[in-house]
Amino acid sequence: MLTTALLLTTLATATAAPPNAPPNALPATPASAPAEQPAKKEKGIDAIALPLVSYNSDQGFTYGGVAGAYLYAPGHNPYQHAISIQALFTSRGQQNHYLRYDGPQLIGPMRLEFRLEYRRELRSPFYGAGNVSAQDFNGDETQERFNYTKNAPGAWVRLRGRPWGENHPFQSYVGYSWRYTEVDPFDTSVLAQLKPEGIQGGATGQITAGVLWDTRDNEADPVRGGVEEVSLRVSGSATGSRYQYAGVTLSERRYWQLGPRFILAQRVTLDMLFGQVPFFEWVNTGGVSTSEGIGGMSSVRGIERNRFAGNIKAFTNTELRYRAFDFNLFGAPVIAGAVGFVDLGRVWHPGVENGEWWKWHPGLGAGLRLARRAAVVRFDWAMSPESGRQRIYLNFGHMF
User: Fold this and answer.
1) What's the pTM?
2) What is the CATH number of the domain that holds 303?
3) Which of 129, 216, 265, 303 is 20 to 30 A distant from 195 in Cα terms?
């Protein structure tokens, strides 16, 4: 596999940062390049540049490049400064470009992170609101009826810290994000017919804050422990937002080692939005590691990306991970394995039909994993038992 070969060969000669899940280091985005936490150095610099080659059924083929550099200095762990830049395109007309900085212990014990980015989607999905929306959808995601064009430049900045010491599991953070979303609906689209809040586009500025309790043994590829998170985001005229709304996210990730080769991994997420919420925020969750859905490679695999949207979203992911064998490559261990998974999700939205309480949308499947230290390549096949449609995802980093 070309992507795997590029990943392992490049990581054997350079040092990078952990993958996308919690953005603690660089680069970090679901379609970003693989990365590792650099080993502690007293001084010096590491740099890496990687091509991006991946595929998933939601976005098609992904191509582009990412580069990162790490500056080390005495008294700064794991590094003093880190910067990364990405240019990413997909075969379905999407773009995701960013510049990101990470400065651990930059302001006393506090960690400063910021990111500038530009996103463009010629076909951004919208099926309406609620848990049983667009019942006439036949599986053709290219239809103008279920899409619109979106441009969304933005930026965010965050301060994180461990107020009770570097080895204590408690973390807290506060941040600010801003995005300007341009919305261009197709004339025959569901979006043009429904005209929900947010169709006029505009700015969404958010103040964010949250706390985590992190007992994982390894952030990038955990075997035991877990992380609990509570996150709050608020938007209004005082934050530079056209819309007045707030959101709360509750998340639990837990890992159990079942013998020497099996790991049971579980994630549960509940996200709630209140107020004048623009429709393009219905699919987003808050927190350090954000997700989209319901539907897609970050929420419920096997279902079309953002198939179900609403003010309240809940989803759960269960994975049984199997570490089949390991071998050494360029002086570092590589673990090859497999995974079986079951995902479930649903939404609730005011003023529309949401179905019975038990109407959860399932996705199930299996995949392969290849991990070298903190870098993980994942290949997943998934299907929706409701529709019978199947999807493929090739990406970097565990889903959670």
Assistant:
1) 0.85
2) 2.40.160.50
3) 303
